[in-house]
Design goal:
The chain has 78 residues and is an alpha/beta fold. Helices cover 21% and strands 28% of the residues. β1, α1 (19-29) and β2 form a beta-alpha-beta unit.
Length: 78
């Protein structure tokens, strides 16, 4: 796919206790030079995933601590 050379993409994703699947996606996303940053919201995983920032400077991890539920449906019922 040919994208304009000046395009910049911010990719935002979330994860809870599924780091192995996330790593597979990361390796694919990191091949795209247009992706300027990958923001991962770690929703209180049992093992924090902050170490993923060491793979590439474009990866940023934001940890949500002390939250029981990952699925908003469980909390809101909507």
């Amino acid at each position: 796919m040919n994208l304009p050379s000046d395009i910049k993409i911010s990719l935002i994703t979330s994860c809870k206790n599924s780091v192995e699947a996330l790593k597979i996606s990361l390796m694919s996303w990191l091949h795209w030079k247009e992706i300027e940053e990958i923001i991962i919201v770690d929703w209180n995983s049992d093992v924090p995933i902050d170490y993923l920032t060491e793979y590439d400077k474009r990866i940023k991890v934001i940890r949500v601590s002390d939250e029981e539920y990952f699925n908003p449906f469980i909390v809101t019922g909507k």
